[in-house]
């Protein structure tokens, strides 16, 4: 983007009518175009670059129309030469002549046509989101005003001091509930907007051609997907986890999956004083004797916790004290309270969504149910420590011990909201291909990964969160490290058999076997 400013409600996005870049109103102000006499938004870079270059080869192919030819005949005869009207750049004017041929032609070198189309699409989405934001702020203000008006009316008409005391107590009780009420209100607003836009699109496509209907649905889903992403990212908590799980659903349109997949990236982290307070609450006032945090931002921040690199003081067998390089996983503040609230709300949303739009959210109720169980367990890091220790022993005792490992956890630093473990110096598994690794190395890593998950699925513990962010290739040894065992399950023999049959059915494309395996699950 041409502009580095953060766009918000008071600073909207605009696109330059020349290059198509997205800017704010200050970077792309309206300037008078001397050739047309109209104002158009032009960024500072296009003004400084000077007049657009003209493709002279195209200009020579077709002579300019004669003075006696009509505009219709001139346009029908082929491309004409660019206008020779004075450029506003020559006299330092504020206007700008749009580029021709090179930047907007089918074979132009600059590719400006595609860039302008993408910019126009982005502006359309931003305008729609801007209108939705205005409606949201208006509804929220109206709801707060109506609540205050009702409380004031009840207080005035209350009988005696006891009635007024009851109204005052009710108002005081609503104050701490305000964040939760607004959170539920926002979820209801999200469902209402998506339902309304889908319903309007269903009515608008009637009587239109197939191409027009597809385009209308495409724009509706693009706006809805961006709106869902913005709302979920601001809500955080369980809704991010639900969006991450839903983004891999084959029932959703592709545009929703692309938007929601961005939530796999890092989430906002808590400040360092908050981390220090939580460490003191979990490990005691002398926590600095066991944990020495490194300066700088955290290594990563997810939905429930963030990870800081630290120097850890651990006690080995026999009472031997050792300092090791490690990491400390610290739970976000207030995340447990918001997650438990969101789980209840998400179950209601899943029920309504599957009832109203079964073709889009037919499996959402199952996803919410399974994810809520895993999320409740993920809030207790002591359960994660036990699962990680079990997986580490399982892999170390197998023939895969030299190819795959799980970082060591330190029981003395494992509490309900804090978890200390071994630090792994390595690269994300996605970076292996990007750095130009050989096919032999890639095959070795992928084979080790498949064998490791096969072993854990038929062993005592199974990792239910195997996304690339939890897979590292150790720099020193080239071994594969499997991280984050917060979402882990112990499968029963019947479940292992059913999952095995399901994988075989998918590989063989056997729908009957797939249906039987899903029924067993």
From TrEMBL:
Domain Protein kinase: 293-521
Biased composition (Low complexity): 67-89
Record domain FYVE-type: where: 1-51
CDD domains linked to this entry: ABC1_ADCK3-like, FYVE_like_SF
GO molecular function annotation: ATP binding; protein kinase activity; zinc ion binding
Short name of any one Pfam family annotated for the protein: FYVE
Keywords: Membrane, Metal-binding, Transmembrane, Transmembrane helix, Zinc, Zinc-finger
Annotated stretches, region: Disordered: 56-111
Membrane-spanning residues: 134-156
UniProt protein name: ABC1 family protein
